[in-house]
Write a structure and sequence with these properties.
Layout: H1 13-29, H2 36-48
């Protein structure tokens, strides 16, 4: 018994433009998160545990 292969959806016209615009905005914003507080807390925990 074979499993049917599903077709891959293709974005066209306005939907494709909207998608690419959202992708570029998200790529521009992805490096704005600052994890310095979490990293310092983690390093303090590891130092206390002597790892």
């Amino acid at each position: 018994m074979a499993i049917a292969i599903k077709s891959i959806p293709v974005l066209k016209d306005k939907v494709a433009k909207t998608f690419t615009k959202k992708v570029s905005v998200n790529n521009a914003n992805k490096s704005t998160i600052d994890f310095s507080k979490q990293a310092s807390v983690a390093s303090k925990i590891l130092a206390k545990a002597k790892l």
